[in-house]
Amino acid sequence: MLLTTLTPVRHNQVVAQTVLSCSLTAGNRNQINHAIADYNQLNQGVLSNRITTSSTGDSRIQITNLGIADAAGEIVNPLGIVAEGLLAEYQQQGLSFEEANRATLNTLTAWTELTADAASTTVIATIKQSLIEELGTEKTEVINQIPDSSLLTALAGLNNTSLSTLGLDSAEIVATAQIEITPQAEGSLIAQIQNMIANVAELSSPEANANITSFQDNLVLELDNIRQGNQTLINAGSVVSFRFRLDNQSDRPRGIKLPNIQTITETGLVGTGEVTRVSYRVPGTEANTLTDTAQEVVIPGQQALDLSIQVRVGQAATDSITSVGIDLQTNCGDRNLVQQLNLVPPLILTTEEEPELIDPRGQVSGCSGELLADYLGFSVALYDVDGSDPTQSEPAGLVPLTTTELPNEPDNNIPEGIEPNTQNSNPFFLTNEDEGKYSFLFDDAKGQLDFGRDYILVVDPGENSTYDQRQVRLTIGDRQDRIVEYTATSLDGRPISAEDGATTITGRIVLVEDAERIGLNLAVLDLTTDICDAQEISLTKTGDRASAEPGDIVLYRLTVQNLSSTPLTNFQITDTLPPGFALHDETVLGEVNSTLVEIEINSSSDRVVNFAANTTLEQGQSLSLVYATEISPDALRGDADNSAIVNAQRTDNSQTVKDGPAVYSLQLESGIIRDAGTIIGRVFVDHNFDGEQQSEEPGIPNAVIYLENGNRIITDADGLFSVSNVLPGYHTGVLDLTSIPEYNLAPNIRFIERNSSSRLVNLEPGGLVRMNFGVTPTAKEQQDNSEVKAPSATSETPGLDQ
User: Fold this and answer.
1) Please, are residues 627 and 588 in contact by the beta-carbon 8 Å criterion?
2) What is the mean pLDDT of the chain?
3) Residue 180 predicted with pLDDT over 80
4) Which of 358, 437, 455 is nearest to 401 (CA)?
């Protein structure tokens, strides 16, 4: 498990840099993008979220750091901000970078090992003693000389570097520099920090105030997460936004050229990650997303542009710091700015002696890892895999597990069990007292731990539950001594647990060897599985009428309801209109709780419309979206289906939820102008093979023609047929030669495309189109006709001379 924090890295790191080019007015200067990289020093230098300065001689555009935010807009990785201050403080006291880095990680570990209500005097004493043990007694004097107030200020994230990271400008930092924390024996350090944060917030701008408040809340949350052994808020695969503000400090408009995603990736992205989206907003305008092309934007005088660069965090190393960041600079400002996020190995707490297994029991938790309010009716079962299923995803019968007992009665040949499944029952029914925990014991003597053995773990919420069933395939892997590895694969596409967000994980089964258990080698399964609501989001579509005609205006309403146990955000609705229906963009209206919300519209085609709503729905709330469409004369008559799907994102674990398609059908009538047409045709004997019927070429009765919609048509005595009330457009007819076995299709010497038993015609609205088929008698039929005519030709028929 990786703990993600903003962790200090070396000061002298040289990173790539994206330059934002400025101009006095938009369009009169070219974009300048360049990279400055020293790969030999890539892992040395810049502090996380560190702001560096460089003079360019032109201070009309000022870049300000607005902080790194998660999907919910909260400031992320507060421990990383704390780590910056600690590293700077330790280096200032004369420690080398390596020593300061070790001291920083040791300080964070020592702090989190203490309880949340530890006083600041206890925190200082514990940290300094821990540093002496980490760095050696020869550093005792250096460590004891570190001012307590400086160390506490760094822990609070209130040193100059940290305040810059949180968005305070130079004047605000100077104003808050006089505030410092002094050790107090009474009251917790967290309470002291909260009081300090309140004082700092009064001296800062509203934006910085919001960042500071979010920082404090997340700091407390992250410390609690680590103390509980849980992963922190950001990990590999998480999406974060590096946010900047570009202030035009002059009275004249300034143009600034914003690079595209590729340029930022090549010149401004640092470390492991992927730039996925770049957006900006100028006051008084809607938010815009940069495409594949760079874009020049005008910032009015004395106003600012907000820039957001979205990055998907890359995979972290297991034994070293891994970083991702963005480095920006303008050619008309007084500094460049670096924001950097780091992933580091977890802090290993030693406050409790833990056994080889953290917990010999699996647990069923909610979609974001929380305990459920009620586990009654839930069961967990182990099934063998159906060998006939090629996907290896269908359960067969229940696995016969060895019966156990607890407490154990000696000499009854029943091995001792473990809680909570003391009898090793399969299935096992969960209880509220055990907080959703379960346990299964495998029997090695029965081959249940053989390499390659497959099982399916089924978590069943019971009848009439709002939760969805979970199925996870377990595959037994390699064994080393008493440790048996297994691979767990989600069969429904959802993450197995909210802790890591992965759909495939590797776990361990530990063999329990005990002679008192009558020689049985039992093994304990430990797998935590999250279970989510069966339906987390609902989409319904309605219309204002059941039928319509060309020229009518049809109103549609989309209703999105949050059915999950957590707020939802980032709503994306894809609506497919019927052919010939046109959306009126100006009619689109979104509303939540009688409050209008902004709806972004993006049409990928004439019929497919994408709606985006950057809002948050609490549990049970609904988003209502209404829009109008106009029916054009060329709309297809009959059933007109309008379908939509919705995607959104949970705020607790960033998982995607979706629903749809929701379909609304109306009957499209012909209206005042009736445009249905008629198809007529004839099946005839084509003697001269020209595809046209002459007077001496008779029609063929009882021939069958099939249209593309399945209609079956039979010719009359003259070989004629007709079909009325046919919708305009292309239609296909096929002559069934089996209905006239005496004839074959006549070859057409004029039009080679007519040498087929099918015809394609285009019927105009209200029009008439002809569909003819020429045939010729079979060879047998021609021979029979010749034999019938032969006697009359020789005048040898009896009685003709009489």
Assistant:
1) yes
2) 77
3) no
4) 455
